[in-house]
Amino acid sequence: MSDQIIPITRPTMGNSAQQKSESKFPTEVINLPSKGWFYSSDNPLSSGTLELKQMTAKEEDILTSPNLIEKNIVLDKLLDAVLVDKSIKAEEMLVCDRNAAFFALRRLAYGDIYDAKLTCPRCRKENSISIDLGKMDNKPFDFSKYTKGTNSFDFTLPYGKNNLTFKLLTKIDEDSIERELEVVAKHSPEVSKEITTRLVYWITSVDGNSDKMKIRRFVENELLSKDSFALRKHIKETTPEIDSSFEFSCKFCRLERREDTPLGISFFWPNG
Protein backbone atom coordinates (compact mmCIF):
# COMPACT_ATOMS: atom_id res chain seq x y z
CA MET A 1 0.00 0.00 0.00
CA SER A 2 1.35 3.41 -0.95
CA ASP A 3 2.00 5.75 1.96
CA GLN A 4 -0.24 8.22 0.17
CA ILE A 5 -3.31 5.97 0.36
CA ILE A 6 -5.71 6.80 3.19
CA PRO A 7 -3.73 5.03 5.93
CA ILE A 8 -5.66 2.81 8.32
CA THR A 9 -3.89 1.11 11.23
CA ARG A 10 -4.70 -2.21 12.81
CA PRO A 11 -7.58 -2.03 15.31
CA THR A 12 -6.94 -1.20 18.94
CA MET A 13 -9.18 -1.84 21.90
CA GLY A 14 -9.74 1.47 23.68
CA ASN A 15 -7.99 1.85 27.04
CA SER A 16 -7.58 5.61 27.34
CA ALA A 17 -9.85 7.94 29.26
CA GLN A 18 -11.11 9.32 25.97
CA GLN A 19 -12.22 5.84 24.88
CA LYS A 20 -13.98 4.61 28.03
CA SER A 21 -17.47 5.05 26.66
CA GLU A 22 -16.52 3.13 23.49
CA SER A 23 -14.28 0.48 25.06
CA LYS A 24 -16.43 -2.42 23.80
CA PHE A 25 -15.65 -1.63 20.17
CA PRO A 26 -12.40 -1.67 18.18
CA THR A 27 -11.09 1.65 16.99
CA GLU A 28 -8.98 2.72 14.02
CA VAL A 29 -6.53 5.58 13.65
CA ILE A 30 -6.37 7.36 10.29
CA ASN A 31 -3.88 9.94 9.08
CA LEU A 32 -5.56 13.17 8.01
CA PRO A 33 -4.80 14.66 4.57
CA SER A 34 -3.97 17.96 6.29
CA LYS A 35 -1.54 16.20 8.66
CA GLY A 36 -3.01 18.55 11.27
CA TRP A 37 -0.85 21.30 9.78
CA PHE A 38 -3.50 24.01 9.66
CA TYR A 39 -5.02 23.52 13.12
CA SER A 40 -3.88 25.47 16.18
CA SER A 41 -1.52 23.60 18.51
CA ASP A 42 -4.20 23.26 21.21
CA ASN A 43 -6.57 21.48 18.81
CA PRO A 44 -6.38 17.68 19.16
CA LEU A 45 -6.52 17.46 15.34
CA SER A 46 -3.11 19.13 15.17
CA SER A 47 -1.66 15.67 15.80
CA GLY A 48 -2.58 14.85 12.21
CA THR A 49 -4.47 11.71 13.18
CA LEU A 50 -8.07 10.87 14.00
CA GLU A 51 -9.31 7.87 15.99
CA LEU A 52 -12.64 6.44 14.93
CA LYS A 53 -14.84 3.78 16.49
CA GLN A 54 -15.78 1.20 13.91
CA MET A 55 -19.37 1.47 12.74
CA THR A 56 -21.98 -0.80 14.30
CA ALA A 57 -25.68 -1.43 13.69
CA LYS A 58 -26.33 1.58 15.91
CA GLU A 59 -24.59 3.84 13.38
CA GLU A 60 -26.56 2.19 10.58
CA ASP A 61 -29.69 3.38 12.39
CA ILE A 62 -28.34 6.92 12.04
CA LEU A 63 -27.84 6.46 8.30
CA THR A 64 -31.45 5.35 7.83
CA SER A 65 -33.07 8.03 9.99
CA PRO A 66 -35.61 9.87 7.77
CA ASN A 67 -35.53 12.92 10.03
CA LEU A 68 -31.74 13.28 9.81
CA ILE A 69 -31.78 12.65 6.06
CA GLU A 70 -34.46 15.29 5.53
CA LYS A 71 -32.47 17.83 7.54
CA ASN A 72 -29.30 16.91 5.59
CA ILE A 73 -27.34 16.30 8.80
CA VAL A 74 -27.14 12.52 8.71
CA LEU A 75 -23.41 12.38 7.89
CA ASP A 76 -22.68 14.97 10.60
CA LYS A 77 -24.43 12.78 13.18
CA LEU A 78 -22.59 9.71 11.91
CA LEU A 79 -19.19 11.35 12.34
CA ASP A 80 -20.08 12.65 15.80
CA ALA A 81 -21.07 9.11 16.81
CA VAL A 82 -17.79 7.47 15.81
CA LEU A 83 -15.33 10.08 17.09
CA VAL A 84 -13.41 8.58 20.00
CA ASP A 85 -12.13 11.90 21.31
CA LYS A 86 -15.35 13.72 22.13
CA SER A 87 -13.46 17.00 22.63
CA ILE A 88 -13.12 17.16 18.85
CA LYS A 89 -15.84 19.25 17.25
CA ALA A 90 -16.64 17.58 13.95
CA GLU A 91 -18.13 20.77 12.53
CA GLU A 92 -14.79 22.54 13.02
CA MET A 93 -12.84 19.97 11.02
CA LEU A 94 -11.52 21.04 7.66
CA VAL A 95 -13.75 19.71 4.89
CA CYS A 96 -10.84 17.79 3.34
CA ASP A 97 -10.29 15.93 6.64
CA ARG A 98 -14.01 15.21 7.11
CA ASN A 99 -14.13 13.65 3.66
CA ALA A 100 -11.12 11.47 4.52
CA ALA A 101 -12.93 10.30 7.65
CA PHE A 102 -15.98 9.31 5.61
CA PHE A 103 -13.88 7.36 3.11
CA ALA A 104 -12.12 5.55 5.96
CA LEU A 105 -15.44 4.76 7.66
CA ARG A 106 -16.84 3.30 4.43
CA ARG A 107 -13.77 1.11 3.94
CA LEU A 108 -13.80 -0.10 7.54
CA ALA A 109 -17.52 -0.88 7.54
CA TYR A 110 -18.02 -2.46 4.12
CA GLY A 111 -14.61 -2.97 2.51
CA ASP A 112 -12.77 -1.28 -0.34
CA ILE A 113 -15.09 -2.14 -3.24
CA TYR A 114 -17.87 0.36 -3.89
CA ASP A 115 -20.46 -0.72 -6.46
CA ALA A 116 -22.52 2.15 -7.83
CA LYS A 117 -24.41 3.52 -10.84
CA LEU A 118 -23.06 6.37 -12.97
CA THR A 119 -24.79 8.16 -15.85
CA CYS A 120 -22.40 8.74 -18.73
CA PRO A 121 -21.96 12.50 -19.30
CA ARG A 122 -21.86 11.95 -23.07
CA CYS A 123 -24.57 9.41 -23.98
CA ARG A 124 -26.59 9.75 -20.73
CA LYS A 125 -26.87 5.97 -20.31
CA GLU A 126 -26.49 4.41 -16.89
CA ASN A 127 -23.39 2.34 -16.19
CA SER A 128 -22.80 -0.12 -13.37
CA ILE A 129 -19.38 0.66 -11.95
CA SER A 130 -17.11 -0.83 -9.31
CA ILE A 131 -14.65 1.52 -7.55
CA ASP A 132 -11.70 0.32 -5.47
CA LEU A 133 -11.52 2.85 -2.63
CA GLY A 134 -8.27 1.30 -1.45
CA LYS A 135 -6.46 2.63 -4.51
CA MET A 136 -7.26 6.27 -3.80
CA ASP A 137 -4.23 8.36 -2.90
CA ASN A 138 -3.86 11.67 -1.11
CA LYS A 139 -2.84 14.37 -3.54
CA PRO A 140 0.86 15.34 -3.33
CA PHE A 141 1.25 18.38 -1.08
CA ASP A 142 4.29 20.36 0.10
CA PHE A 143 3.52 21.36 3.69
CA SER A 144 6.91 23.04 4.12
CA LYS A 145 5.61 26.04 2.15
CA TYR A 146 3.09 26.92 4.84
CA THR A 147 3.17 28.03 8.47
CA LYS A 148 2.20 25.22 10.82
CA GLY A 149 -0.74 25.95 13.10
CA THR A 150 -2.25 28.64 10.87
CA ASN A 151 -5.17 28.29 8.49
CA SER A 152 -4.24 31.34 6.43
CA PHE A 153 -2.73 31.65 2.96
CA ASP A 154 -1.51 34.58 0.86
CA PHE A 155 -2.32 35.16 -2.80
CA THR A 156 -1.78 38.11 -5.13
CA LEU A 157 -4.31 38.37 -7.93
CA PRO A 158 -2.45 38.09 -11.26
CA TYR A 159 -4.39 40.88 -12.97
CA GLY A 160 -5.89 43.12 -10.29
CA LYS A 161 -2.74 42.78 -8.15
CA ASN A 162 -4.75 42.90 -4.91
CA ASN A 163 -3.13 41.05 -2.01
CA LEU A 164 -5.54 38.54 -0.52
CA THR A 165 -5.54 36.08 2.34
CA PHE A 166 -7.84 33.07 2.35
CA LYS A 167 -8.56 30.02 4.47
CA LEU A 168 -9.56 26.39 4.01
CA LEU A 169 -13.24 25.88 4.80
CA THR A 170 -14.75 23.91 7.67
CA LYS A 171 -18.19 22.31 7.91
CA ILE A 172 -19.38 25.44 9.76
CA ASP A 173 -18.42 27.50 6.70
CA GLU A 174 -20.07 25.05 4.32
CA ASP A 175 -23.31 25.16 6.33
CA SER A 176 -23.27 28.97 6.29
CA ILE A 177 -22.75 28.95 2.53
CA GLU A 178 -25.67 26.56 2.03
CA ARG A 179 -28.00 28.69 4.17
CA GLU A 180 -27.05 31.83 2.29
CA LEU A 181 -27.57 30.15 -1.08
CA GLU A 182 -31.00 28.94 0.02
CA VAL A 183 -32.01 32.51 0.88
CA VAL A 184 -30.70 33.77 -2.47
CA ALA A 185 -32.58 31.01 -4.33
CA LYS A 186 -35.86 32.07 -2.71
CA HIS A 187 -35.47 35.72 -3.69
CA SER A 188 -33.65 35.35 -7.03
CA PRO A 189 -34.22 31.80 -8.32
CA GLU A 190 -33.03 32.71 -11.81
CA VAL A 191 -29.50 33.63 -10.66
CA SER A 192 -26.99 31.35 -8.93
CA LYS A 193 -24.51 32.99 -6.56
CA GLU A 194 -22.53 29.84 -5.82
CA ILE A 195 -19.15 31.24 -6.90
CA THR A 196 -19.35 34.68 -5.28
CA THR A 197 -20.83 33.34 -2.04
CA ARG A 198 -18.11 30.72 -1.70
CA LEU A 199 -15.42 33.32 -2.43
CA VAL A 200 -16.76 35.57 0.33
CA TYR A 201 -16.23 32.75 2.83
CA TRP A 202 -12.85 31.72 1.43
CA ILE A 203 -11.32 35.21 1.44
CA THR A 204 -10.32 36.56 4.85
CA SER A 205 -8.79 39.90 3.81
CA VAL A 206 -8.32 42.16 0.80
CA ASP A 207 -5.23 44.41 0.83
CA GLY A 208 -5.04 44.01 4.59
CA ASN A 209 -8.72 44.78 5.23
CA SER A 210 -10.59 41.88 6.89
CA ASP A 211 -14.01 43.57 7.12
CA LYS A 212 -16.53 41.06 5.73
CA MET A 213 -18.67 43.72 4.06
CA LYS A 214 -15.58 45.11 2.34
CA ILE A 215 -14.71 41.60 1.15
CA ARG A 216 -18.25 41.03 -0.10
CA ARG A 217 -18.31 44.33 -2.03
CA PHE A 218 -14.92 43.51 -3.54
CA VAL A 219 -16.03 40.05 -4.67
CA GLU A 220 -19.33 41.24 -6.12
CA ASN A 221 -18.18 44.49 -7.74
CA GLU A 222 -14.42 44.48 -8.35
CA LEU A 223 -13.11 40.93 -8.74
CA LEU A 224 -12.31 40.19 -12.38
CA SER A 225 -13.48 36.82 -13.68
CA LYS A 226 -9.94 35.86 -14.69
CA ASP A 227 -8.72 36.69 -11.17
CA SER A 228 -11.61 34.73 -9.68
CA PHE A 229 -10.65 31.71 -11.77
CA ALA A 230 -6.98 32.03 -10.82
CA LEU A 231 -7.84 32.29 -7.12
CA ARG A 232 -10.16 29.28 -7.18
CA LYS A 233 -7.53 27.25 -9.03
CA HIS A 234 -4.91 28.26 -6.45
CA ILE A 235 -7.20 27.37 -3.52
CA LYS A 236 -7.76 23.91 -5.01
CA GLU A 237 -4.00 23.46 -5.32
CA THR A 238 -3.57 24.63 -1.72
CA THR A 239 -6.04 22.10 -0.32
CA PRO A 240 -4.55 18.79 0.87
CA GLU A 241 -7.15 16.17 0.07
CA ILE A 242 -7.85 12.72 -1.23
CA ASP A 243 -7.84 12.27 -4.98
CA SER A 244 -11.23 10.53 -5.10
CA SER A 245 -11.34 10.33 -8.89
CA PHE A 246 -11.29 7.06 -10.82
CA GLU A 247 -10.99 5.93 -14.42
CA PHE A 248 -14.44 5.69 -16.00
CA SER A 249 -15.11 3.92 -19.29
CA CYS A 250 -18.67 3.99 -20.66
CA LYS A 251 -19.86 0.56 -21.77
CA PHE A 252 -22.11 2.13 -24.42
CA CYS A 253 -20.26 5.01 -26.11
CA ARG A 254 -16.72 4.15 -24.94
CA LEU A 255 -16.12 7.55 -23.38
CA GLU A 256 -13.04 7.40 -21.15
CA ARG A 257 -12.34 10.04 -18.52
CA ARG A 258 -11.73 10.49 -14.81
CA GLU A 259 -14.80 11.00 -12.64
CA ASP A 260 -15.16 11.89 -8.96
CA THR A 261 -16.50 9.32 -6.54
CA PRO A 262 -19.90 10.50 -5.25
CA LEU A 263 -20.07 10.97 -1.47
CA GLY A 264 -23.62 10.68 -0.18
CA ILE A 265 -25.89 8.44 1.87
CA SER A 266 -25.77 5.59 -0.69
CA PHE A 267 -21.96 5.59 -0.35
CA PHE A 268 -22.44 3.72 2.94
CA TRP A 269 -24.82 1.10 1.57
CA PRO A 270 -22.94 -1.29 -0.75
CA ASN A 271 -25.97 -3.42 -1.64
CA GLY A 272 -28.92 -1.22 -0.77
Descriptive account of the structure:
The chain has 272 residues and is of the alpha+beta class. The protein folds into two domains: 12-140 and 241-268, no CATH class; 145-237. The chain contains eight helices and ten strands. The protein has a three-stranded antiparallel beta sheet. It has a three-stranded antiparallel beta sheet with strand order 6-7-8. A two-stranded antiparallel ribbon has the order 4-5. α5 runs antiparallel to α6 (194-202). It starts with 11 loop residues before the first strand and ends in a 12-residue tail after the last strand. Residues 1-23 have low confidence and may be disordered.
Q: Give the radius of gyration.
A: 20 Å
Beta-strand percentage?
Answer: 15-25%
Q: How confident overall, as mean pLDDT?
A: 88
Tell me the total number of β-strands. Answer: 10
Unreliable stretches covering 5 or more consecutive residues: 1-23
